[in-house]
Structures are given as C-alpha cells and as structure tokens.
Here is the input.
Amino acid sequence: MAARKTTAKKPNVSGDELKQYYRDMLLIRRFEEKAGQLYGMGLIGGFCHLYIGQEAVVVGLEATAKENDKRITTYRDHGHMLACGMDPKGVMAELTGRQDGYSKGKGGSMHMFSKEKHFYGGHGIVGANVPLGAGLAFADKYRGNDNVTYTYFGDGAANQGQVYETFNMAALWQLPVVFVIENNQYAMGTSQERSTSTQDIYKRGEAFGIPGEMVDGMNVLSVKEAGEKAVAHCRAGKGPYILEIKTYRYRGHSMSDPAKYRTREEVQKMREERDPIEQARDMLLTGKHASEEDLKAIDKEIKEIVNASAEFAKDSPEPALDELWTDIYAKEVPQGEAV
Ligand SMILES: Cc1ncc(C[n+]2csc(CCOP(=O)(O)OP(=O)(O)O)c2C)c(N)n1
Ligand SMILES: [Mg+2]
Here is the structure.
C-alpha cells in the first residue's frame, strides 16, 4: 500500500499507438489555441480554462480505458472531452454558446456532458467532482461490472476537505476509482510550495490505505504505464488508486490571468525542455515510426478538424429564448437503468 515514485519509461507501445497519442495530443493543443483565438475575438464569453501543456495526462490515461469506463473532471475540461472521443464541433459550439453545442449553448466551457462517451462533466466548484466520481464508481461496484471511473482534479483541489472524506469511503468500500491529481504546480496564482504543507500529494492516501504514485505527466508513455497499473488494480476489485501526475500549464489559469506569479523564463524552459508533444514527435522520428512528411500530414489533418469545428460553431445559431425553460428539472428519473 506504500506510495512510491516512478520514473520516465522508454517506448513500450507500437509505432501506430504512439502516432495516435501524438495525434490526440496535437488535436487538444490546436483546439485550445483556436479556443484562445475565438475568446480574443469575443466569440467565447465567460470562463475558459485552457489545457495547453497538460495534454499527455489525459491522452495517456484514455489509452488505458475500455468501453463503459467513466470520466469526470474540473472546469479545465476541453482536453478530457476530446480525448474520450467527443466531437470537436459540439465542444466548440458549446464554448461559443450555440444551439449545436453539447449543452445546447447553455453550459459553456465548464458544463458539458456526454452520456454516450461516459463523460460526466465539467465542474466549476473546486473539489466537488471528487465525491461525484466516487459515486459513479459506487454505481459500477453495485452493478457488479468491472468499469473504472477516472476522477481528475488539481493540486489545489487536493487540499479540499471533501477529497479526504471521499478517500475514506472509496477505500472503505473498495471502489473502482482512479484519483488523478493533475499537479500543474499552481492553483490560480498560488504555487504548490506556497499552499501545500507536504509536496508529495501522491502520499495523501496512505492514511486510508490507498496506494499512490508520482508520474511524469510530460511523457505520454509514462502516464499510460502508470495508468495501466492503476486501472488493473481497480478492475481487480482492490479499491481506489491515486496517481499524482506532474504536469504544467503554459497558459494562464483562465483567460483573465495577469500571470504575475511566475516568470516567462519558467514557462519557456518547460516548453523547450519538456513539451509532451515534442517528446512524442522525437520518439516517433528517432524510432523511425514516422517521417517528417507523415507528421506534416497529421498536422494538416488536425488543422482541418479544428478549423471545421470553429466554422461549425460560428454557423450554429444562438439558442432560442424558450430554451431558457428546458432541461431544468428531469422529467423522468431512470430506475436502475444500466449506464
Ligand atoms: C470551492 C471553490 N473555491 C474556490 C474556487 C475558485 N477557484 C477556481 S479554480 C481554483 C484553483 C484550483 O487549482 P487546481 O486544483 O490546482 O486546478 P488547476 O486550475 O490548476 O487545473 C480556485 C481557487 C472555486 N471554483 N471553488
Ligand atoms: Mg493546479
């Protein structure tokens, strides 16, 4: 049950798999860049938290998921939606508040869901999605299947009280939940050193008997490898698992962040030395799994998908006024339905 550190690993996947991860990370990066542009043009309003820099976390973990596994996350959620296969067009349309968005334009960046892809949001209250994630895992345990729930939250959220109430219950009932702490080293403008009494968050489950691991979140293969172990533990009925994934966000906390709490050099250094997409690119080229031309073709394909999502969003109308009165209360409560 002891918590431990893992180190980065050499490629342990096929060239095609690695290419897929590169593609999936690039889709998130380019999508987020486009969202940033649309925000600057006034086409996206309200809160918008970009995932740029953290792509390897969700792509590495999605590579360990099977059909019917569930995921739930915070407000920094666009990457999670794209990685689990939600349509970029529907996500961008929601960001721009349009009728064809995942929440009919009424939820925006932080409030999207997909029953089909088992994506349970998008949550704005820091820490509040953690008990919900354990609840999703409880449902699967109750039904007796081997599904796992990936419950993502930040280093800041890891200091919330409800996280520890959840750890206790998840361990007590041996729930199949992977607690994924995306440690990007900042909670808004507060660094982890300034806010957190002990820096090794992966050890926070020890008091509850939950194993934990620290993972290099800038290397998609390290994330996948640690994720496989965590998921196997959960599927085998051994209860929850904690992954503290060390990552970094390149952009501000949200679109309105003056970024006075860190230096430009710090961000630049991370981008130059640790970027997850560049690392995957290097592994593809040096391992001769892809040529420069192959990668250019992937870049082009991604650019087209992202541009098409922006065009789709711009063409989609704003929701009609009477939409204000729909989707407020559930009409029917599903009874014991398998989801
Ligand atoms: C209960 C609660 N307190 C405060 C806030 C304001 N707030 C929004 S994000 C955030 C920082 C959270 O940081 P972290 O958990 O590290 O996630 P990150 O933004 O780095 O992904 C805070 C304090 C909130 N949304 N909810
Ligand atoms: Mg953080």
